[in-house]
Amino acid sequence: MAMVGLFWIDEDSVYVGAEPAGATSGVRLSEDGVEAPGIGRGRFWTWDEVVRIETHHVAVRSGVRRLASMAFDAACVMVTGDGELPPAFSVEVATAEETVRVDVLTAVTGGIYLPSEYDLSTALLQRLADGGAEIGDLLAWGREHAAQGTPPREEREALLRKWAGA
């Protein structure tokens, strides 16, 4: 698997945030549409139904502030011995009939995203929702490259720019 912006990409799936495990909720993007496993019996919307996908409460910091936050969190864990689940954020999926908010776990180390990757990721989510981008591009990249792990920051940003048409 590989992290590219807000996306967890493997050979056959794209998630916003971390892939859900057990009873945790998540948001999966596929060729057919948007799925929210873990919400009751699960929810699904086709791409034709989706009008908007937004994120809320995502931790975004500059590179220096991100490193400082991660160091502080690591020190707190060492002192207290208490580890926590990764931070969560919300993904809002809107159709003409409803808006559903799903909590997802972040999968990026430290739970904090760089502003550039966050901005490009949200632009891509909107382009996916309005039909201006294809999830198949992310899936194809995942089949070819996800097993190699998360690419360097410059490559992640280049991929997001390409997928978002930015």
Identify the notable features of this structure and list them briefly.
single chain; 166 residues; alpha+beta; 3-stranded antiparallel sheet; 4 helices
Secondary structure blueprint with pairings:
Elements lengths: L1 E3 L2 E3 L4 E3 L10 E3 L3 E4 L6 E4 L3 E7 L6 H18 L7 E8 L3 E7 L9 H15 L5 H11 L7 H12 L2
Antiparallel strand pairs: 1-2, 2-3, 3-4, 4-5, 5-6, 7-8, 8-9
Please explain how this structure is put together.
This protein is an alpha+beta fold and 166 residues long. α2 packs parallel to α4. It is globular, with a radius of gyration of 16 Å. About 10% of the residues have low confidence.
How far is it from the N-terminal to the C-terminal residue, by CA?
24 Å
Which overall shape is indicated by the principal axes computed on the Cα atoms? Answer: globular
Look at the helices and sheets and give the structural class: alpha+beta
Order of helices and strands: EEEEEEEHEEHHH
User: Over the alpha carbons, how many angstroms does the gyration radius reach?
Assistant: 16 Å
Measured as a percent range, the helix fraction is: 25-40%
Please tell me the overall pLDDT.
85
Which percent range describes the beta-strand content?
25-35%
Give the neighbour order of strands across the main sheet. Answer: 1-2-3-4-5-6
Q: How many helices?
A: 4
Largest sheet: 6 strands, antiparallel
Please provide a brief summary of the model.
The protein is α+β, with helices and mostly antiparallel strands and 166 residues long. The chain has helices at 63-80, 115-129, 135-145, 153-164, and strands spanning 2-4, 7-9, 14-16, 27-29, 33-36, 43-46, 50-56, 88-95, 99-105.
